[in-house]
Amino acid sequence: MENCSKIMGIPVPKITMTDTIEVISKVVTERKSELFHVVTLNPEITMSCQHDQQLRSIIDEAGLLTADGIGIVMVYRLKGNPLPERVTGCDLLIKMLETANQNKWSFYLLGADEPTSIKASEVITRSYPNVSVLGRHHGFFNKVEEAQIIEEIQALSPDVLVVALGAPAAERLIYKYKNKLNARVAIGVGGSLDIIAGKVKRAPANWQKLNMEWLFRLINQPSRWRRQLILPRFAIKALLFKEKN
Question: Is Glycosyltransferase one of the keywords (predicted)?
Answer without folding.
Answer: yes
